[in-house]
Amino acid sequence: MKNQHIVNLIESKPLSRLDDSELAAIERHADACDACRRAWQAAQLSAQLLSERAAEVIEPSPFFATRVMAALRQQQATRVSPFLRAWQAAQAMVYAMVAVVVMVGALSWLAYQPQPVAPEQVSVLSSDATDLLLPEPASSEMSYGQVISTIYDLGE
What we know:
The chain is mostly helical and about 160 residues long. Helix content is about 65%, strand content about 0%.
């Protein structure tokens, strides 16, 4: 084993899993080789540091739960449904279209002015019931104003 160094054996598995024959071979080779002795001491020291560090109980900081919950909320916010993402993208356009429709409707309602009926279109009809029920066959069609005045008896 003097021609072969033990570095590969030390690095192949943790020191706690080495069996007695491997440990004896490492000790024999480390006595004869300075480079391997330093590697063996470094491996023992690092194993001891790791075991001591693993044995320590570390309390989380007071704001650890707050940070974790904020990270979870942020992660959930990135997982948005496709419908919600589409709504967020088109929301401003939909609101603008609704505003335009409301404005056009309001302007149309405000600008509406009924056309007045010309006096020559309104003719006074007799209030006789027979004239209403049996119109004369020779008369032409009635205008809108004549119909209204006949229905509401606007005659003199």
